[in-house]
């Protein structure tokens, strides 16, 4: 199994993943405690599904009882900032959502990896996961040795940054695990906590999703509380601020080699006034195949109106 583990990791890198590691599929007690605290403190906001699936999330075998190992992968999605024009009149979409929907890209590569393993080990059975069922990807990535969960609540890969999608494979094979990543390299830095416009990072690695722009523009159901509306600024889908200020990203983030993540929405395409004139059909056409389309037309309209309101407030001041 040792050779198969190493060959699997080599193959994952050949498929274009930027980092890969292996861990066991047993219960993750400490991660489960963190999640329970998050839910008990109601920081998950209206993400009821998170509370409903809390028990299974820390137990990969809940989704695939035969699971013995987890192969965790990371794929860089960063597109250089200079290719994007920032202006208050233009809506801002998080970098990760500006290209093709990552779910399909990661799933395809992971299926390819699973098939490749099965060709070498015919007894292989496995399941691919990319947000497809509730599982705690970041703690698994730490256990697989990929990086640490940073103060901005993202997974940082040392010497590479945090602009990575995570996904994995549950396997029925007992592959030898990698050493967990046991250090953390945020040190005394608190840039992300200070930069968050919504004060959503209430303490290191403690995210209050109810205040987070990313959550409010993507996951939240219902009206956005007036106290938080101004914090959205011109963000209409997601938020990158706590990643953009991070020295690990500023120093090490490199352009993704994945052509599917090429930015589709530059300049005037994101003019807020222009976007409000989009009919549902035009919206569906413009965002077809991207993660933006997942949040739906109604939520898109809601965040657009808030962003336009913020733009006129800005003009008055
Ligand atoms: S994504 Fe934006 S709002 Fe959410 S914690 Fe980071 S900086 Fe704050
Ligand atoms: S900005 Fe500083 S504290 Fe925040 S995640 Fe990056 S290194 Fe850690």
Small-molecule binders here are: iron/sulfur cluster
Distance linking N and C termini: 65 Å
Number of helices: 15
Mean pLDDT: 89
Topology as H/E string?
A: HEHHHEEHEHEEEHEEHHEHHHHHH
Protein model, in words:
With 317 residues, the chain is of the alpha+beta class. The strands form 4 sheets. The chain has a 4-stranded antiparallel β-sheet with strand order 1-2-7-4, with helices on both faces. Strands 3-10 form a two-stranded parallel ribbon. Strands 5-6 form a two-stranded antiparallel sheet. It has helices at 2-14, 29-40, 48-52, 54-57, 102-120, 137-143, 191-195, 213-218, 226-229, 241-244, 247-252, 272-276, 280-286, 292-295, 297-316; strands at residues 19-24, 69-76, 92-93, 126-129, 148-149, 155-156, 164-171, 201-203, 206-207, 235-237. Helix content is 38%, strand content 13%. The protein is built from 15 helices and 10 strands. The mean pLDDT is 89. Helix 1 (2-14) packs antiparallel against helix 5 (102-120). Strand 8 (201-203) and strand 9 form a beta hairpin. The longest helix is centred in the last third of the chain and has 20 residues, at 297-316.
